[in-house]
Amino acid sequence: MEEYMETLKLLLKKNGAKISRIIFIMIMTVVIITGGIRELKSIDFAKTISIIREFPMPLIFIFTILGVLAVSSMSLYDFAIIEYLNFNIKKTTIFSITFVANTINNISGLGGLAGASIRSLLFKKSANNKEDIIDYNLLLVPSTGIGLSLMMIIALFKYQYINSLLEKYRWMIIAIIAFMIYFVIYFFIDKIFNILKKNSREVDNNRIILRVRLLFLSFVEWMIAFTLFFVIVRQFSQEVNLDIVFIIFTLGSIAGILSLLPGGVGSFDLVVLLGFQYYGVGTENVLAILILYRVFYYIMPLLIGINLTLIIQSQSEDELNKFIDFSKVTDFINKTSSITNLLLSILILASGVTLLLSALAPGAIERIKIASRLLSFPILQLSRQLTICIGILLIVISREIRMKVKRSYKITMWLLFFGAIFAMIKGFAYEEATFLILVLIILKMSKHSFYRRSLPIDWFKAIMTLILSFIGLLAYVKMSHIILRDFIRIEYFKSLITKGISWPIPSGVIAYGLLIIFVIYYELTKERITNNDRYEGVDEERVNKFLQEYDGNFLTHLIFLKDKHLFWSKDNKVLIQYEISHGLAVVLGDPIGDAKYFGEALTEFQDFIDEYGYKSVFYQTSERLLPFYHDHGYYFFKLGETGLVELDNFDINSSKSRDFRNILRRFEKDGFTFETYYENSIDENLFLDLKKVSDEWLAHREEMGFSLGWFNKEYLDKSKIGVIKNRETGEIIAFASLSPSYDDKTVSIDLMRFRKEVPNNTMTFLILNLILTFKDDNYKIFNLGMAPLSNVGIAQNAHIQERIAHLVFKYGKHFYSFDGLRKYKNKFDPRWEGKYLVYEDLILLPSSLIEVTWLIHSKKNKS
């Protein structure tokens, strides 16, 4: 029990901040949903949509300029900090990088940490040292919200307005107090940081001046954002004065930052909704204000930021490499996904949502009139249904865009093109059509970034996609019905709805039917790795020739099970045995061959499987190659230790071996003998005798494989076999097959099986004879096999997953005697060597262990 408590304490110690943040965000989400649902029920969505769609283009242009200006002003922080830290970066480069970082930061939330992370990654090469990057973030992150504190102080001077709000919504007082405290702490952050780090250096005056300057810049930035908000509000209400709008915006922004939710979504909106409702602004108008503010403060700058990213990527790498550490950026892109494709996938997702929202309700009245005069009602109805279909398909395919699949690029181009056409046909929705065409152009410019042939076929994900899509469509149809009910009050729409043009159920049925067809067709026609010429089976002649030239390892002999596939490097100097399982390529053991070429071969292998969307996992790798895997970006998990008996040091006549000598004498006295059969010496009678022992040992259990041998005549015939026989009857009571490492120095136990009724210490008698036999044959190492989870997670500061594994080792004896197995093997005085699971991404550890287990228990080829 104490072990469990220690593990829990360690978990909280290492992840306490993360867990607290998640709990806080969950609480905030519940509060916002609880407070917001009641208000949303009173909103007339049809009226809101109609209000937004009637805005003239010049006003939209003004909104866009103000939104871009507001986000651009965030770069002022960076100019000031970079000047202070003396980074050698061009101003144009600073702006281009920080503008993109700010647009991403705006939609991600987390109190500015996302933007800070991107800046750290891109500016790392220009920093004088690692401390400069820490200093950069220490100056930047606290400064982004400090301007709101100053705005809150100004708002308090208009107490007659703020007091009435606080009397009704007292919980806002907490947010105000928090930001007032924040304003005071802001000027002592450096001092607090030095105390926590036990650093005695004093804060210089220039740094204090910089803090004041950043305070002013933050105030300017938030005031520009407020200007955009105020201009939008003025389009809906002339009665609400400037002071009231200022107070509501400030309170809403503070709530948004404190919630840590992406873009302050929900928290900002709820405060603004409650504030304006209190002063008599209609809920439909407030909703329209919020939508427009989010579009022009978040979405439009994001689109421009994406374009800016593409322009940056099209520039000379040599020019940008002066300022940006491209080796780090490239590694980041390869291990996750490029920022460009992530943003593109967001755009494709947004395109799908845009089409669905466009089809959710009729367009502006005059446009519908024009469309209905030019086109027949069936065509209008069909265009609406196809718009819904394309919207759903764009949402579904956005993941493949993020994963850079070439096929998805072509399909998405056509979906965007036809989506724009149908958006125009169903009601001259030029806004949606223009947006889709812009996305299409951006996608076209990014063509070179799509390199993957496909992703692994995953029917579970496909089925989940269909289930979630069905649930989403039900909600969509219900929402469509509610909105159309509001539109029925408009006389012109009544006639169209009566004729069935906007009835949502047929559209939903057609859309879902086409989605099912698309998903099934898309999965079945994917390019598969199994059809690639480099996905090779076992060619025994080629493998044997290779093993004559190069040494193998403990697991090399398992190639001849033929349940795995082989990857040969282009120069045929390195061989990797692996098997694909769902989204993983599970490699058994280390590469074999010329060690000088391991790095090139691993890169080749990664590139090969990456073309099909697979990640690599290495199972039972050796300790000596961990630095090699680390250099290639892998993580490690200790699986256990393998026991290696050093045969030169094993002395059966020593005092330590007295018990062993007694066992040998007793078995010889009781009439048991040991015999060895070498490769290609198993006749039919011997095979049948061995099969009887194997079947009795299995007792109807399934054979395992992948990293374990199984009973198969062709496979056994390639192995040395040791048997224990009854001298009088000739009956075999136990046997073991040996797995060579193809270096004439090392041999490993593979299969070890015995009958139910055998004398005590039969296994020990068998192992002792094998050890003595191979010692006489001048072998150096006898591998007893692995003790799973042995010596895993015993260090006080071990990773949490290894601590959990240690608990399984210690207390899991009801399921498997982990501890007992190690104690038994320790009798032979082995040298213990760690074995590891090596995996590409931290999140892959659970799935890697599951897939390895699945492969070991798979029935494939076990005959």
Automatic annotation (TrEMBL):
InterPro entries: Acyl_CoA_acyltransferase, L-PG_synthase/AglD, LPG_synthase_C, PG_lysyltransferase. It is an enzyme of class 2 (transferase). GO terms for cellular component: plasma membrane. It comes from Tissierella pigra. Catalyzes the transfer of a lysyl group from L-lysyl-tRNA(Lys) to membrane-bound phosphatidylglycerol (PG), which produces lysylphosphatidylglycerol (LPG), a major component of the bacterial membrane with a positive net charge. LPG synthesis contributes to bacterial virulence as it is involved in the resistance mechanism against cationic antimicrobial peptides (CAMP) produces by the host's immune system (defensins, cathelicidins) and by the competing microorganisms. It holds the Pfam family LPG_synthase_C. Residues 546-839 form the Phosphatidylglycerol lysyltransferase C-terminal domain. One of its GO terms (molecular function) is phosphatidylglycerol lysyltransferase activity. It catalyses: L-lysyl-tRNA(Lys) + a 1,2-diacyl-sn-glycero-3-phospho-(1'-sn-glycerol) = a 1,2-diacyl-sn-glycero-3-phospho-1'-(3'-O-L-lysyl)-sn-glycerol + tRNA(Lys). The gene is mprF. This is Phosphatidylglycerol lysyltransferase. Belongs to the LPG synthase family. It is found in: Cell membrane. Its EC number is 2.3.2.3. Its main location: membrane. Keywords: Antibiotic resistance, Cell membrane, Lipid metabolism, Membrane, Transferase, Transmembrane, Transmembrane helix. It is a multi-pass membrane protein.
